[in-house]
Amino acid sequence: MISPFTLLFEEEPNHGPGLPAELRAIYSGDWRLPAIPAHRPAVWTNFVISHDGRIAFNQPGWNGGNAISRNSRHDHWLMELVRARADAILAGAATLRAARRHRWAAGELIDWPAFAALRASEERPPLPALVILSATGDVPAATALTLPRSLFLITTAHGAERALATHPQLTCLVGADGQIDLPAAFATLRQRYGIRTLLSEGGGRTYGTLLLTQLIDEVFLTLSPIIVGNPSPPAPPRPGLVEGVGFAPQHPPRLRLISLRRAGDMLFQRAQLHFATAAETV
């Protein structure tokens, strides 16, 4: 049994369903779901970052979040919790490629019946749908694609043609004019397929795209007490939390802190995202 988190701050703004008592006891508080928009799912992200804002060492054998969290049991538990409340999980093709054996399911790292019970109580299927983001349609073979779940690909017309040649089980959500259209894809997931909640486990580029399109409601962020650094070329760069987009200094996206928890030297932040105006990039 994992020891309880230490609650440092909490100011819950939501009024949706909360956690059962067994999970509240470990989390040392509650997590109430936000209102579900009619036009898209409620969306949250979950990252573990180093003290200097890196999300991966980007070298063989040290490429996943476990290297940043140092295999923290509390970070694993929180990952399972946020997955347990997701109807679907979003991952970029690069993330899928880097973790081919990953299942993207609650209970993958901590096999605890309470997570399955939470999914059942909130009328979610045993496995969340998997939504892959890829403009090119270059979707690798992966364990997650072989499990009994709904599979979606957000892509272009060319990407759909390429992906379906090797993965005919995918439902492709195709943007117009050769582009990915995330708002339209999320609307389809909500209105046609009943996806109410979506967790993004994509990397820094996926997170940047979601910020740019203002499609995130809440952020779960684990701050690990390690320093990763970013070596000079020719060593491969070590990605940060947000990649591929920069915001104008006048109106950057802003976080409103909901809760802060501690376990040892790890800090666990939950926050709402607020967008003051239409996104401006630099």
End-to-end C-alpha gap: 47 Å
Largest sheet: 10 strands, mixed
| Low-confidence regions | none
CATH architecture classification name? 3-Layer(aba) Sandwich
* Rounded average pLDDT: 92
Overall geometry comes to globular
User: With helices defined by DSSP (H or I, 4 residues minimum), what is the helix count?
Assistant: 8
Explain what the structure shows:
- With 282 residues, this protein is an alpha/beta fold.
- It has a single domain, classed as Dihydrofolate Reductase, subunit A, CATH 3.40.430.10.
- The protein is built from 8 helices and 10 strands.
- It has a 10-stranded mixed β-sheet, sandwiched between helices.
- It is globular, with a radius of gyration of 18 Å.
Write the layout of secondary structure elements.
Layout: E1 6-10, H1 21-27, E2 42-49, H2 65-69, H3 73-84, E3 88-92, H4 93-98, H5 113-121, E4 129-133, E5 151-155, H6 157-166, E6 171-174, H7 182-191, E7 197-200, H8 204-212, E8 218-223, E9 254-263, E10 266-274
Parallel strand pairs: 2-7, 2-8, 3-4, 3-7, 4-5, 5-6
Antiparallel strand pairs: 1-9, 8-10, 9-10
